[in-house]
From TrEMBL, chain A:
<comment type="function">
    <text>Component of the F(0) channel, it forms part of the peripheral stalk, linking F(1) to F(0). The b'-subunit is a diverged and duplicated form of b found in plants and photosynthetic bacteria.</text>
</comment>
<dbReference type="InterPro" id="IPR002146">
    <property type="entry name" value="ATP_synth_b/b'su_bac/chlpt"/>
</dbReference>
<keyword id="KW-0375">Hydrogen ion transport</keyword>
<dbReference type="GO" id="GO:0045259">
    <property type="term" value="C:proton-transporting ATP synthase complex"/>
</dbReference>
<comment type="subunit">
    <text>F-type ATPases have 2 components, F(1) - the catalytic core - and F(0) - the membrane proton channel. F(1) has five subunits: alpha(3), beta(3), gamma(1), delta(1), epsilon(1). F(0) has three main subunits: a(1), b(2) and c(10-14). The alpha and beta chains form an alternating ring which encloses part of the gamma chain. F(1) is attached to F(0) by a central stalk formed by the gamma and epsilon chains, while a peripheral stalk is formed by the delta and b chains.</text>
</comment>
<keyword id="KW-1133">Transmembrane helix</keyword>
<dbReference type="InterPro" id="IPR028987">
    <property type="entry name" value="ATP_synth_B-like_membr_sf"/>
</dbReference>
<dbReference type="GO" id="GO:0005886">
    <property type="term" value="C:plasma membrane"/>
</dbReference>
<dbReference type="Pfam" id="PF00430">
    <property type="entry name" value="ATP-synt_B"/>
</dbReference>
<keyword id="KW-0813">Transport</keyword>
<protein>
    <recommendedName>
        <fullName>ATP synthase subunit b</fullName>
    </recommendedName>
</protein>
<dbReference type="InterPro" id="IPR050059">
    <property type="entry name" value="ATP_synthase_B_chain"/>
</dbReference>
<comment type="similarity">
    <text>Belongs to the ATPase B chain family.</text>
</comment>
<keyword id="KW-0472">Membrane</keyword>
<comment type="subunit">
    <text>F-type ATPases have 2 components, F(1) - the catalytic core - and F(0) - the membrane proton channel. F(1) has five subunits: alpha(3), beta(3), gamma(1), delta(1), epsilon(1). F(0) has four main subunits: a(1), b(2) and c(10-14). The alpha and beta chains form an alternating ring which encloses part of the gamma chain. F(1) is attached to F(0) by a central stalk formed by the gamma and epsilon chains, while a peripheral stalk is formed by the delta and b chains.</text>
</comment>
<comment type="function">
    <text>F(1)F(0) ATP synthase produces ATP from ADP in the presence of a proton or sodium gradient. F-type ATPases consist of two structural domains, F(1) containing the extramembraneous catalytic core and F(0) containing the membrane proton channel, linked together by a central stalk and a peripheral stalk. During catalysis, ATP synthesis in the catalytic domain of F(1) is coupled via a rotary mechanism of the central stalk subunits to proton translocation.</text>
</comment>
<keyword id="KW-0406">Ion transport</keyword>
């Protein structure tokens, strides 16, 4: 039966020690730990929330980036197309112009050649005439080197001259 | 895994051999199990650890604890060594200042210090540091260490520091587990006010239970298996419950919502409710005490059965075979009991805390919706 009867001496020590320990632990132990853990929990929750938001933002940015890239690509294609068209146009024009120019130059050259040819003809004609006069002169001089030959020629010439005159009359 | 099994088996065989070394086998000897049991479970003025040697040069290892008594001749403080080891004719152990420790068979004050004044035996004011009182100190210091070390970490760190490791981390988790899963669901918004007290109770009981399982000092003191300890803890819950009770709580006791004939003219329900006030803490006190007491008793019985079997007959061979086989069984059962006690240590602390929380929550009822 003495098992079930509290001992006053032990109760005294139990009360003393337990209340002192409880006071210290309640004052400095548990609230500190509980507050700290709750603070940490809030901090971690907050961090998680922030991380989620950041992730969302990041995915948004990625999506935006992709759309921008797409747009850029489209624009690039468009620009390339335009550039090709412009280049073709320019090349075409240039060719046309070149054709025209070459035709013009050829025509000019032709006319010049024609003029030069005429000039050359005229030149040659003059020279030929001069040469022939000189040749004739030389020949004449050869033929008229003695008097008899001179006389004969004069005679011939005179014949020639007289006859046509008679003929004309 | 296989290696561990072999080692365990060897250890078991070794435990079977140990008692054979210590004893003369061919003698029938009565082992006083009752004495062993009560000696370990009950409070005492010395801390008996073990006995060395055989009967010729018997050498007990005992820590003598201080005796503090106020007898008719004033305060006396001395070592319990001054009480003689020899029992006199009545089974008492005489000591100085007319004081003596009554025998365990005594009806009035078994194993307690009494003072002889003339022919009368008077119990003096006795606040001796008994084994249980020392255990209170040890457990108190342990509780302080176990709680203040993690608390110190909290004071030295900020919320955004990396998480604590090791023991501090474990205690944080343990405390928050009890706080969030046991106390909070019961108390709701009153939690911050009562949680520290309930947590103190939980960890004190839990560590006292665990220390009770350790078979040598500083453990071994059977504190939570002592009715004084559980009585104190139960009383604290009782006082908190009734002194912080709301008006609604008292109204439900004295004028509950039952048909009028049940409370007037014979106050049937109020009487039952009034009894309930006292049975609640009593249940706490008895439950914790009985669980820990029984656990220790069973664990000791399994150990004692080995020694009983070794001296069961007058034949050495019978003694040896019975003792050896029982050693193996006894050790296995003791291991099982230890593991069970570990579980019980936690469960009883949990139950005490949870019920205290429930009782406090019941004393804080809000006005019922009509």
């Amino acid at each position: 039966m003495d098992l079930l009867i509290p001992n006053s001496g032990l109760l005294f020590w139990m009360t003393l020690v337990f209340l002192i320990v409880a006071f210290i632990v309640i004052k400095f132990g548990f609230p500190t730990i509980i507050n700290m853990v709750n603070e940490r929990k809030e901090y971690i929750d907050e961090s998680l929330r922030k991380a989620h938001a950041a992730n969302e933002k990041l995915s948004n940015i990625q999506k935006e980036g992709e759309s921008v890239m797409q747009q850029a690509r489209e624009q690039q294609a468009l620009l390339l197309k335009e550039a090709t068209a412009t280049r073709d146009a320019i090349v075409g024009k240039a060719q046309e112009k070149a054709h025209e120019e070459s035709a013009r130059i050829i025509a000019e050259a032709k006319s010049e050649i024609a003029v030069e040819k005429q000039n050359a003809f005229n030149d040659i004609r003059g020279q030929v005439a001069e040469l022939s006069v000189k040749v004739a002169e030389k020949i004449l001089r050869d033929q008229l080197s003695n008097d008899e030959k001179q006389m004969e020629l004069i005679g011939k010439l005179l014949d020639n001259v007289s006859s046509p005159v008679s003929n004309d009359k | 895994m296989k290696f561990i099994k072999q080692v365990l088996l060897l250890l078991l065989l070794f435990t079977a051999l140990v008692p054979t070394v210590a004893r003369d086998m061919s003698k029938k000897d009565d082992v006083d199990v009752k004495e062993i049991l009560w000696g370990h479970i009950k409070d005492s003025y010395e801390w008996h650890i073990t006995d060395l040697g055989s009967e010729e040069n018997f050498y007990p290892i005992v820590i003598h604890l201080p005796i503090i008594v106020k007898s008719s001749t004033g305060w006396h403080v001395f070592s319990s060594e001054e009480f003689s080891e020899e029992h006199d004719a009545n089974g008492d152990r005489p000591g100085p200042y007319n004081l003596f420790i009554k025998s365990g068979e005594d009806k009035a004050n078994p194993n307690l210090i009494v003072e002889k004044i003339g022919n009368k035996e008077v119990r003096p004011v006795d606040i001796s540091l008994t084994k249980a009182a020392c255990t209170v100190f040890i457990d108190g210091i342990l509780l302080l260490l176990v709680i203040l070390i993690p608390a110190r970490w909290c004071r030295k760190h900020k919320a955004d520091d990396p998480a604590p490791k090791g023991f501090t981390g474990l205690m944080h988790m343990f405390i928050m587990n009890i706080h969030d899963d046991v106390i909070k669901p019961c108390l709701g918004e009153d939690t911050p006010k009562y949680a520290p007290w309930l947590l103190t109770c939980f960890f004190f009981i839990f560590f006292a239970n665990l220390m009770g399982l350790v078979p040598f000092p500083p453990g071994g003191g059977n504190l939570t298996g002592n009715i004084t300890c559980t009585f104190f803890l139960g009383m604290c819950t009782f006082l908190i419950t009734n002194f912080t009770g709301t008006k609604e709580y008292w109204k439900e006791i004295f004028w509950p919502d039952v048909p009028v004939w049940m409370k007037f003219p014979i106050p049937l329900m109020p009487i039952i409710e009034l009894f309930g006030i006292f049975t609640k803490p009593l249940a706490l006190i008895i439950r914790l005490f009985a669980n820990m007491f029984a656990g220790h008793a069973i664990a000791l019985c399994f150990c004692a059965i080995i020694f009983i079997m070794f001296s069961i007959a007058d034949n050495a061979i019978v003694n040896w075979s019975a003792g050896t086989s029982m050693s193996i069984v006894g050790v296995l059962l003791s291991i099982f009991m230890m593991l069970l006690e570990l579980l019980v240590s936690y469960i009883q602390a949990l139950v005490f805390t949870m019920l205290s929380a429930v009782f406090i929550a019941q004393a804080h009822v809000k006005e019922h919706e009509a």
